[in-house]
């Protein structure tokens, strides 16, 4: 596991340096740069100092955090003795929180930005993920360990990796789009996405192991998901004027993940406990809205 830890640290330093470069290049020449806004990267410990938080920089940093959660989820299955029982609670809580966020917060904001045509893009986002998860990829259970008797060919593991990579790319699109609209929307979308990031990394690593890949390759798949998340944020950072396109698309993706990926996994659990955790996730979103959102 020492190799993986060193790799995470090296990758994190590289991405943090990239974040600094991207953030400062985007601020260059703007009123933010003239006002003294900057993102500094200190070599000793790679410390990020934010004098003022620009939405794009905040998106990049939180995209990096979400990516780290993917990688951590992969490490859970590579490091066998780590406890995994709590993952199902992340799935249930994330399902409720994501569904409420997408319908109550993201969808209305998308309609305000783009009008009636936003509904078409929401549907398109939903169908894009449905297409990749049910035609390109093999069936899998989200947040659950996959065993070798469920997979025969290595290409099935890679097909699932392709589907989840596209999904996580849109996670990054959603985070950046939210912050481009408002800090509140960005934070609530980030929390919704972060809740399912660890089970997501766990899932792809488990699938890759079951398809006959080595632990290093399997864990690398979770790193790829993290990189795709960050790439989604960076893409919206570059094309930030297309937020009226990116936000409704990501709303459709979020609805799909919550309703078609996570809720079915909750429904497989016996008893009412997991179902109640879904309601807890919904309630948490409304509590945050009531206490923290300035209407």
Overview of the structural elements:
This protein has 295 residues and is mostly helical. It contains ten helices and two strands. A two-stranded antiparallel ribbon has the order 1-2.
Summarize it.
Helix content is 77%, strand content 3%.
Topology diagram in text:
Layout (H helix, E strand, L loop, with lengths): L1 H26 L3 H4 L4 E4 L4 E4 L4 H24 L8 H28 L2 H20 L17 H28 L1 H28 L4 H24 L4 H25 L5 H20 L3
Antiparallel strand pairs: 1-2
Helix pairs in contact: 1-3, 3-6, 3-7, 3-8, 4-5, 4-7, 4-9, 4-10, 5-6, 5-9, 6-7, 6-8, 6-9, 7-8
Secondary structure: number of strands: 2
Largest sheet: 2 strands, antiparallel
Q: Approximately how much beta-strand content do the residues carry?
A: under 5%
Order of helices and strands: HHEEHHHHHHHH
Assign the structural class, choosing from mainly alpha, mainly beta, alpha/beta, alpha+beta, or little secondary structure: mainly alpha
N- to C-terminal distance:
47 Å
Number of domains: 1
What is the 3D shape? globular
Radius of gyration: 19 Å
| Quaternary organization | single chain
Q: Within the largest sheet, what's the order of strands?
A: 1-2
> Unreliable runs, pLDDT <50, ≥5 residues?
1-5, 22-51, 145-152
Bin the helical content: over 70%
Quick check: average pLDDT?
Answer: 78
Helix tally equals: 10
List the keywords.
single chain; 295 residues; mainly alpha; 10 helices
